[in-house]
Specification:
Layout (H helix, E strand, L loop, with lengths): L2 E3 L2 H9 L4 E3 L6 E5 L3 H11 L8 E3 L15 H10 L4 E6 L14 E5 L4 H9 L4 E2 L14 H8 L5 E3 L11 E6 L2 E6 L5 H8 L3 E2 L22 E3 L14 E5 L12 E3 L6 H17 L4 E4 L7 H12 L2
Parallel strand pairs: 1-8, 4-6, 5-9, 10-11, 12-15, 13-14, 13-15
Antiparallel strand pairs: 2-3, 3-7, 4-7, 5-6, 9-10
This protein binds threonylcarbamoyladenylate and magnesium ion (MG).
């Protein structure tokens, strides 16, 4: 198991020595290493068992750092950064040559984000390099929203996890790219499409692609080990009894299943609270002695669209 704590100096020492450290952000925990050192970036892919065609996000501590990573920043990107950074928004920009090609999986662009978390912000501002960090889960599994989640799955591969408590947003950052000045939505996340459009006009939605530009867009992703059915109806399969079924509910439980096998994302119907609980509750259901998880769609607006996106992919 890895040590967990709030020792920023220890995280710095490990990162400067070329090791990986798990870090908290407002969205999910990241598996972080020196973004400018290709051999460190290679370790990230290895520990996460992540395919090399899936590029990483580079995390920075302040706005002065992105000019070393990206070239020709579109006006719309500047506006979005001013409005939403620090926060759960990732911008995909033309890549500076000093960023190793492994970070961007050979793409001519690089994904950059300025996270909103006090510990990680101090860490990033004290380090002499930015941090490449994918979510700190094995590839394809549920993203971690506590230090304990990270320790359960990657603890044997890490020395240290910077423990910043439970993530307050709970779903990954929204990813926005640009075609000239036209903003593109690559991944739904912690900032709603409506909020982004209020700042930079209509987004062209390009969430899916056969040759994935943003593999958070791969159909099967964020998945528990148990089969998950994403449906508002609770049609019990003939070969299963109610005791075999777990349910992730939005605001209330169903009378068709035993109470203790159902988890409610937000009893008051609040989408932010639902997003915060999403991944932790999927893990709890995955650990119950049930055979299948039914997940109910949440209202499809604002953060709800990012939640439904994760549930749909978890069901593929
Ligand atoms: O909230 C988050 O974004 C978290 C925290 C740790 O910051 N990170 C995260 O990383 O979700 P990851 O690796 O699980 O997802 C990164 C996504 C991938 O789907 C990847 O394809 C996309 O970012 N991405 C990275 N570089 C890209 C690029 N140049 N063009 C398009 N998509 C890119
Ligand atoms: Mg991920």
């Amino acid at each position: 198991m890895a040590e967990m704590g709030q020792d920023i100096q220890k995280a710095i020492d490990l990162l400067v020595a070329g090791k990986l450290v798990a870090i908290p952000t407002e969205t999910v925990y990241g598996l972080a290493g020196n973004a400018l050192d290709a051999s460190v970036v290679a370790q990230i892919f290895q520990v996460k068992r992540r395919p090399h065609f899936d590029p990483l996000i580079v995390h920075i501590g302040n706005l002065n750092q992105w000019s070393d990573l990206a070239l020709d920043i579109p006006k719309a990107a500047n506006k979005l950064a001013q409005e939403f950074w620090p926060g759960p928004l990732t911008l995909v920009l033309p890549k500076h040559p000093q960023v190793p090609d492994l970070v961007s999986a050979g793409l001519p662009t690089v994904a950059i984000r300025l996270p909103n978390h006090a510990l990680t912000s101090e860490l990033l501002n004290r380090l002499p390099f930015p941090l490449a960090a994918p979510s700190a889960n094995p590839f394809g599994y549920i993203s971690p929203t506590t230090a304990q989640h990270v320790n359960q799955q990657l603890g044997h591969e890490l020395e240290y996890i910077l423990d910043g408590g439970p993530c307050v947003i709970g779903v990954e950052s929204t990813i926005v790219g640009f075609e000239d000045e036209q903003p593109l939505l690559y991944r739904r996340g912690g900032i709603a499409q409506e909020q982004i459009e209020a700042v930079c006009g209509p987004l062209k939605v390009v969430l899916k692609s056969s040759n994935p530009q943003a593999p958070g867009m791969l159909d099967a992703h964020y998945a528990p080990r148990k089969p998950l059915k994403f449906s508002s109806e609770l049609s019990l399969p003939a070969d299963l009894m109610p005791m075999h079924i777990g349910r992730l509910c939005f605001s209330k439980k169903s009378h068709k299943l035993p109470e203790q096998q159902q988890l409610v994302l937000s009893p008051s119907g609040n989408l932010s609270e639902a997003a915060q609980n999403l991944f932790a509750y999927l893990r709890l259901l995955d650990e119950m002695s049930i055979k299948i998880i039914f997940a109910e769609p949440v209202p499809d607006h604002g953060l709800g669209r990012a939640i439904n996106d994760r549930l749909k992919r978890a069901s593929s």
